[in-house]
TrEMBL record:
Residues 30-172 form the SIS domain. InterPro entries: PHI/rmpB, SIS_dom, SIS_dom_sf. The keyword Isomerase applies. Belongs to the SIS family. PHI subfamily. One of its GO terms (biological process) is carbohydrate derivative metabolic process. This is D-arabinose 5-phosphate isomerase GutQ. One of its GO terms (molecular function) is carbohydrate derivative binding. It comes from the Archaea. Keywords: Isomerase. It comes from Methanohalarchaeum thermophilum.
Amino acid sequence: MNQTKNSMEIIGNHIKEASSELEQEMVNEFINKIKEGNKVFVLGAGRSGFVAKMFAMRLMHLGFNSFVVGETITPALSSEDTVVAISGSGETSSTIKLAKTTKENNATLISVTSNRDSTLSSLSDNIISVKSEFSNKKIDKTKIAPLGTLFEITALVLLDSIVSQIMKTKDISEEYLEEMHATLE
């Protein structure tokens, strides 16, 4: 079998397995905390940071006041705000530091991680646990792209699926999203 096709099948099967283990109650709470936030900040390091940026963009398309932590136009955090932290291991030092700052400012911290026993999880008000290579020791990482690929891809699919759920509950059309899409590209 072709290595590329094999990797895609492993990733696709992993996403199906992860979706079957998803706790819908935690997803609903996650969405409620986003809706309750005055501003929504997203953060992550490395490739998790790219997933965070994509989620922040989708939130903006949905009409949320969303920001990516670390960008020059990111405003101050207040106790009425929600922070979404994305980290597969839940132990990334920069993410932990920002999570602690979130709690010091009495803001809501929600996380997407594959490690429920992590420092990030212990600081979070809500956790969506995502099955990944960090949590699935049966996966032969030599058969897929390295260094967290399953976590990032699964987190991206999860967060886009959450966007879809928000669209449905807020009765937001694809046309509305198109109107909110960047025109200065």
